[in-house]
From TrEMBL:
It comes from the Archaea. Residues 53-73 are annotated as: Disordered. It holds the Pfam family Phosphodiest. This is Alkaline phosphatase family protein. One of its GO terms (molecular function) is hydrolase activity. Keywords: Plasmid. InterPro entries: Alkaline_phosphatase_core_sf, Phosphodiest/P_Trfase. The keyword 4Fe-4S does not apply.
Length: 451
């Protein structure tokens, strides 16, 4: 037997917090893990920045994913969930240079990855973003046909939106079981989204605790598949969480404030208003408890306007951004950080009649900011325009996730207390014994001691 694992499974149970992993709440996780450490996410603690940090071992200031959206300064457009991964090579891509077989399921920006097995939603839509047919991009190409025949179409409406629940996570874990059966990669990353829904809807209370028990049951079924597989004795299971949740009750509207002060311009086509970014002094691309503000040469007026907003804890300029490892060309001229009980909504209107058509629709790519109101049904459309319904948020990086190791080949760790998110990628390469064989450099040491 080798002195390192030959198979590493990474379960990204987003929203899982250290106090969730108890025998009463999560018996299947506690049954496989040797212990759990708190995991400190990078700033900002948002989906894409954290995922890229976990899979590259770099901070957002290094890898450039500073939000789940991206603002293009040349076209004056903000787009969410559509960024090309470009030269951001994640561990399931770089590990293949060492002969490691890899897989990744439902992480962001997977289309085009060369992982040996991959699945990510890619629905077929018309020019108005209406769903024509559910589909997934997969590697190999025929994998979705197999998954659809066995488990039905991926339940996209249960993955996000008012009907989001555990059914999407269960389908993803079934796909992970298929990945084990079909390829059995040496490294398999699996994104498990269920806790995000309860955390955003209700905050870190009883509903989230109940959701932990629900997803633990789903994870237990997948862990049974692993235990029954031929390589179980060669396996380390990593359980990681991207962030925890704050209770929130204060939505903040930076674009509305900019408009009221003559710093943000809009157009109106009779169907609702739209931001006229080229003619605006500033525009805020919001993402939960963080907002990137892009400005012209009237930045002192912009800063004064933003600093006066209730719910804004701080406005980061370049010095503050460097202190938080987010200084990158993609970062806004200012970065807003919300108070613990506040979060940012992208709205620039007061009257619902002025809202653009996509505001009440499930249209995540059209909205120039993240919209948790999509988790609630609306009265004027599919989704709500009432931001007071949102009960939880994240992004400040001061509520920790978890990191735990388990399985037959799990080593003792040197971690004591809090694990830096940048330590996850180098820990996995140490577990697989490939650190010296891949073209990656890490700025943080691993948490393991492999002998």
């Amino acid at each position: 037997m080798t002195d390192h694992a030959t198979r590493v499974i990474v379960l990204d149970v987003v929203g899982l917090q250290p106090d969730h992993v108890t025998e009463a709440t999560a018996p299947n996780l506690t049954g496989v893990l040797e212990g759990v450490n708190a995991l400190k996410p990078p700033f900002p603690a948002l989906t894409v920045p954290v995922q890229t940090t976990l899979t590259t071992g770099q901070s957002p200031g290094e890898h450039g994913d500073v939000s789940s959206g991206e603002y293009d300064r040349e076209t004056d457009e903000a787009a969410f969930w559509e960024r090309d991964r470009a030269d951001r090579h994640r561990l399931w891509e770089t590990a293949r240079t060492a002969g490691t077989t890899t897989g990744a399921l439902f992480f962001q920006h997977l289309i085009g990855t060369d992982a040996d097995i991959a699945v990510t939603p890619s629905p077929i839509e018309d020019e108005d973003n209406n769903l024509l047919e559910m589909d997934c991009w997969t590697n190999p190409d025929d994998l979705y046909e197999t998954l659809r025949a066995e488990y039905g179409h991926f339940p996209l409406h249960r993955y996000w939106g008012p009907a989001a629940d555990e059914h999407s996570s269960r389908w993803i874990l079934d796909a992970a079981s298929e990945a084990i059966d079909r390829v059995d990669p040496d490294l398999l990353w699996v994104y498990v989204p269920h806790l995000d829904y309860a955390g955003l809807r209700h905050g870190p209370g009883e509903e989230l605790q109940a959701a932990v028990s629900t997803i633990d049951d789903c994870l237990g079924e997948f862990l049974d598949v692993l235990r029954a597989s031929k390589r179980w004795n060669e396996t380390v299971v990593n359980v990681v969480s991207e962030y925890g949740f704050h209770d929130v009750d204060t939505p903040v509207f930076p674009n509305r404030a900019l408009r009221e002060n003559g710093l943000l311009a809009v157009t109106d086509d009779g169907k609702g208003t739209a931001v006229d970014v080229p003619n605006s002094a500033a525009f805020a691309m919001v993402d939960h408890q963080v907002a990137h503000v892009y400005v012209d040469d009237r930045s002192p007026a912009v800063r004064r306007t933003l600093e006066s907003l209730d719910g804004v804890e701080t406005v980061l300029g370049k010095v503050g951004q460097a202190e938080r490892n987010i200084d990158h060309p993609n970062t806004g001229d200012f970065v807003l950080v919300a108070e613990p009980d506040a979060w940012f909504q992208y709205y620039w209107w007061d009257d619902p009649e002025d809202a653009p058509p996509y505001a009440t629709d499930m249209d995540i790519h059209a909205k120039p900011g993240f919209d948790p109101c999509e988790l609630f049904g609306g009265t004027e459309g599919l989704v709500s325009l009432d931001p007071t319904k949102v009960g939880g948020s994240h992004g400040r990086s001061d509520v920790y996730g978890v990191y735990g190791l388990g399985g037959p080949m799990a080593p003792e760790t040197s971690a004591d207390g809090v694990v830096d998110a940048r330590a996850v990628a180098p820990t996995i390469t140490e577990l697989l014994g490939i650190t010296d064989s891949i073209p990656m450099s890490f700025s943080h040491p691993p948490v393991t001691e492999c002998e």
